[in-house]
C-alpha cells in the first residue's frame, strides 16, 4: 500500500496538551518569576562577573555578576506583557478600521487600499519603521508592533464583517430600522469575536518575536529594564565564551512564540471543525438607465396599503456595467390582501421586494414613479419613517437558520425590538413574546424562549421568525420563499401558519415563490414576473383558469399540482430568461414564446387590462375577449415606431 505524499500532510506540531502546558508555564512565570527570582536577577556580585555556565549559575552571569537564568525567567513578565499590549493596540486599531470598512462601502474602498498596501510589507519591517517614528523604548516599540499588526487585524475583521453583514438577520434588523452601530454591536461583533480572539492569540506569539527583535536591535526595551530581546542582544557578544547567555533568552523567545501560536491554531482547528463562515456580496454603483414611461396605471390607488409603480432596481458593477434585475414592476396590495409573486429563479422577485423593504444597498439603486406603504413614501425615508416601518413591515426569509443570529437566544430576538425601540419594559415584552411563540404553535414557549436557534428544527425556526413579526404591529409581511428551505411535511404547516397570521392580524402578505402551486394555495392575487417585469397580474382563480400570458401558461403547465393533467407529462420550460444585463427593445419572453412574431421582438407590450382586475403584457394574449384589440394596438405601436 502506498500513500500520496504532500496533499494530506500537515506540518508537524506540538501535541495540543504539550502546547497548553507550555503556555501555562509561561503564564505562571509571568506572574511568579519576579517574586521568586527577582532578587537573584538584580543582585550584583562583581566577583561572580562574566562567569560561564556552571552548577551554581546554569546560564552563567553577566558583567555585573547577575544570574542569567534568573534574569531570563524574570524577563518573562516584561516580554509577555509588552507582547499582549502590542497585540491589543494592533487589535483595537485594526478591528475599528475593519468594522468601518466592512459596514461602509465608500470608506471600505479607501481603507481596503491602505490595508492592501501595508499588508504587502513584512510585519517586522513595518515595526522597525514605526519604532523609529514613535521613538526608541518600551512604549515606542509596543506602539510600533501594534501599528504593524493593525493591517492584519483590519483585513480579517473586514472579511468577517462583510460576511456577517450579508446575513439575513442583519437585513431583518435593517427592516426593523436599526442603525449601523446597533448592527455592529448586536450582530457583527458577537459573530466575529471568536475568530478575532483566535487571531489575537496567535499574534501574541508573533508579537513576542517582533518585540524581541526590536529590543535586540536596540530599538525596544532600554536598560536598566530588560526583556528577552535585550538579554539576547547582551548575551550574543559573549556567545563564544558563555553560550548560555544567549541560549537562555533565545530558547525562551522560541518556546513562548511557539506556545501562543500552537494554542491559537489548535483552538482555531477545533472551532473550525464545528462551524464555517461563508457568504458572498457584490460590489457596484449607480448608473443611468432609461426609466419606464410614467402612466396612470390603475392600481387600487389611494386605498392600497402598498403602491408600487414602475419600480426599477439597478446595479452597476465595478467595471461600469449596468444590470437591471428589476426593470418595470407595478402593482398594489390592499390592506389584508395576500399577493403572490411567482416567476423563475432570477426573475427579480426578491430584489423587487427588497426594494420595498428598503434592503437594497448602495451601489444598488431604486427608482420608481411611486413607492408608497401606507403614508410612508419609501423613496424618501426619514428616521421617523424607518421607525414606523420597523414596527409595521417585516420580512420572513427563505432560510430561517440564516435569519436568526446564532449568538442570541430566541427570546432576545423576540423582545429586543420592543425593548430597544419602543422602550417597552422587559417583563411585558417577555409576556408578549411568549404569547407570540404560542401564537405560532410553538410548544413549551418558556423553554424555547431560552434556547438558541441551533436547538430548534427548521420549521420551528421559521415559526420563530414569524413570531418575531407578531411582536410589532404588522401591516405588511413579506415572505420570501419561506417554505423552500423546509422539509416537505413542514412546508404545508408554515403555509397555513402564514395564512392564519394574515387573517388574525389583518396584515397584507407579499408571498414570493417560484412555485405557482404553492402561491395559489394562500394568495388572493398573483403577479407573474419575468426578467424583471410583471408580465401578468390577476385574481388567483382567474389566473389559474384563464392565464393571458403565454409565460404564465407555461409556468402552470410546468407545475406538478395545478392545471396539468396527471396522465400527461409535465411541460418543461425550454430556453433561458434574458439576464439582468441584457437590453431588448421588445418583449423579453419573445425568444421562448410560441406566439411571438416580429412585433413582439421589436416593440415591448405594455402591462394592460385583459379582463376585470386582470392585466398582462403581451401582444397576443391567450384570453379571447381582448385578443383582437391587442392586435390592433400592436399594429398601432409598430406604425408609431
Ligand atoms: N446585489 C446584487 N447585485 C447585482 N445583481 C444582483 C444582486 N442581487 C441580485 N442580483 C441579480 O438580480 C437578479 C434577480 O435576482 P432575484 O434574487 O430577485 O431573483 P428571484 O426571482 O428572487 O430568484 P430566486 O427565486 O432564485 O431567489 C438575478 O440575476 C441576480 O443575480
From TrEMBL:
Gene3D superfamilies: MetI-like, P-loop containing nucleotide triphosphate hydrolases. One of its GO terms (cellular component) is plasma membrane. The keyword Methyltransferase does not apply. PANTHER family: DIPEPTIDE TRANSPORT ATP-BINDING PROTEIN DPPD, OLIGOPEPTIDE TRANSPORT ATP-BINDING PROTEIN APPD. The keyword Metal-binding does not apply. Its main location: membrane. It is a multi-pass membrane protein; Peripheral membrane protein. It comes from Nakamurella panacisegetis. Belongs to the binding-protein-dependent transport system permease family. It comes from the Bacteria. Coiled coil: none annotated. SMART domains: AAA. Residues 76-264 form the ABC transmembrane type-1 domain. One of its GO terms (molecular function) is ATP hydrolysis activity. GO terms for biological process: peptide transport; transmembrane transport. Keywords: ATP-binding, Cell membrane, Membrane, Nucleotide-binding, Transmembrane, Transmembrane helix, Transport. It is found in: Cell membrane; Membrane. PROSITE patterns: ABC_TM1, ABC_TRANSPORTER_1, ABC_TRANSPORTER_2. This is Oligopeptide/dipeptide ABC transporter, ATP-binding protein, C-terminal domain-containing protein. The chain crosses the membrane at residues 20-37, 80-103, 110-133, 196-219, 239-260. Residues 308-556 form the ABC transporter domain.
